[in-house]
Design brief:
two-stranded antiparallel ribbon; alpha/beta; 8-stranded parallel barrel; 16 helices; TIM Barrel; 454 residues
């Protein structure tokens, strides 16, 4: 490769390309025909050229380091240990335990697992100093990287109420923990809630940053990486750019608080575009979503089983979802190149635009009282609902397509007798401090109508 073969050709400017395209359009308008607007008000052009390309921001997307994460709901300790051991033997190198009960013997759970080279995440439905201290003691003794993923603001946004604590408030609990539990990462941001509820990408990034900024302002010492739990959809290149822009802006804001640790991003496919009928298509959706997660720089990817909407956790669904990631890693070589999106004019352009628009929205949130105030005032929920309604209208009129659901559905497909889980939004009337942000899939209305006719 000592000879540059492109030297034999004269360079073509972006102006020349546009003139050629305009000629081929036979009089049709270039902008109306080929340029489209995304929900984030980003104009997408048919081509991108280096003579229109401004200097890219530096984003470190460590694709070679991404981990395959297995989600495990902990109810029965022995069964959870058995499942974790099986997952690790079959290719997982990260575990995320969901625990709803403080009485779970977490020390017993961890001590029976070979965690020397395994990253562990926890998703706790409560906040407890004593419980986290047990996790911290294990992490310190065994030098295991553990992320506790405590997110009281995310709890308020999703549930409508704070965690119940013995302390004055959830922030006091976190401050006490930051002094007592020094070997684990404590803080996380549930950014997936905003995506699954219908927020556009600029909103997802800006709300996640505002969410994180509240912790920087209220927690005295954040000495470990903050975790972002992010959901990605099938807008492939935009999702790559979204993750890059999120990491870029987080590092920019964190430096203002003298926090020099990079964030840790764990990504899962969105639930928003998943379907009950023709469920095998979900595997195609999650595959491209995992691809964009890896290229976008996810530290860990926890795939969503194709049958997660209607089946309880099961060995087959878990194995297939894990194997999707193993194929991407070991057969598609997605772990061989760091910063794989660098130099792509399109992705760099999207990253820059998403970063600029998200930063502007973040600044607007801060200028108007901050994220928590706007969450309490219902502004965040209202803005997300507006975006969700726009997307729902596109789906309902067929402009947003989910194959097998609102286009080319299989009318013979029956699902009523296969449901082990209730796959639709179910809001129980109860007293809450704020109206919670509700996750909702695009296909729910169509699916309910089909089930009623079975």
């Amino acid at each position: 490769m000592t000879t540059n073969l492109f030297d034999d050709f004269n360079p073509i400017s972006s102006k020349q390309w546009k003139q050629k395209i305009q000629f081929e359009l036979n009089g049709a308008d270039y902008n109306e025909t080929l340029v489209w607007n995304s929900p984030e008000d980003i104009q997408v052009k048919p081509f991108y050229h280096k003579d229109e390309f401004s200097k890219a921001f530096s984003v470190n997307t460590k694709a070679t380091d991404f981990r395959i994460c297995q989600n495990i709901f902990v109810y029965d300790i022995e069964k959870s240990i058995e499942r974790a051991l099986d997952s690790l033997s079959r290719g997982a190198d990260s575990l995320r335990f969901t625990i709803e009960n403080e009485s779970i013997d977490v020390t017993n759970l961890l001590e029976k697992l070979p965690l020397e080279k395994v990253t562990v995440y926890f998703h706790l439905s409560f906040i407890s100093i004593d419980f986290v201290k047990k996790i911290d003691a294990f992490a310190k003794k065994n030098n295991t990287p553990i992320f506790c993923n405590l997110d009281p603001i995310g709890q308020l946004a999703k549930d409508g109420n704070w965690f119940t604590t013995k302390e004055k408030n959830n922030f006091e609990t976190l401050n006490l923990l930051s002094a007592a539990a020094t070997s684990v990462s404590l803080i996380s941001i549930n950014a997936s809630l905003y995506q699954n509820a219908g927020a556009n990408m600029v909103q997802q990034i800006a709300y996640s940053l505002g969410h994180a900024n509240e912790y920087f302002n209220r927690i005295e010492a954040i000495n470990k990486p903050i975790v972002f739990e992010v959901a990605v959809g099938t807008n492939y290149f935009f999702e790559i750019a979204k993750l890059r822009a999120l990491r870029l802006l987080f590092n920019l804001i964190a430096k203002e608080y003298n926090h020099n640790l990079d964030c840790n991003i764990i990504v899962s496919p969105t639930k928003r575009n998943k379907t009950l009928f023709d469920y095998n298509v979900n595997m195609l959706r999650t595959t491209t979503e995992c691809m964009s997660a890896i290229i976008g720089g996810a530290d860990a990817v926890a795939n969503l089983p194709y049958d997660a909407l209607y089946h309880k956790d099961n060995e087959f669904g878990d194995r297939i979802s894990r194997n999707q990631l193993l194929i991407l890693k070991n057969e598609s070589y997605f772990d061989k190149v760091n910063n794989p999106a660098d130099g792509s004019y399109y992705i760099e352009n999207l990253t820059n635009q998403l970063a600029e628009k998200s930063l502007a929205l973040f600044k607007d949130i801060e200028a108007n009282g901050g994220f928590l105030k706007q969450l309490n005032d219902g502004i965040i929920k209202r803005k997300i609902q507006e975006s969700a309604d726009t997307a729902q209208a596109l789906f309902d009129n067929g402009k947003e397509i989910l194959l097998g659901t609102n286009k080319h559905p299989n009318k013979q497909d029956k699902m009523k007798h296969d449901l082990e889980l209730f796959p639709f939004v179910k809001v129980k009337p109860r007293k809450t401090l704020i109206t919670p942000i509700i996750e909702k899939r695009l296909a729910e209305k169509i699916e309910q109508e089909r089930l009623e006719k079975e």
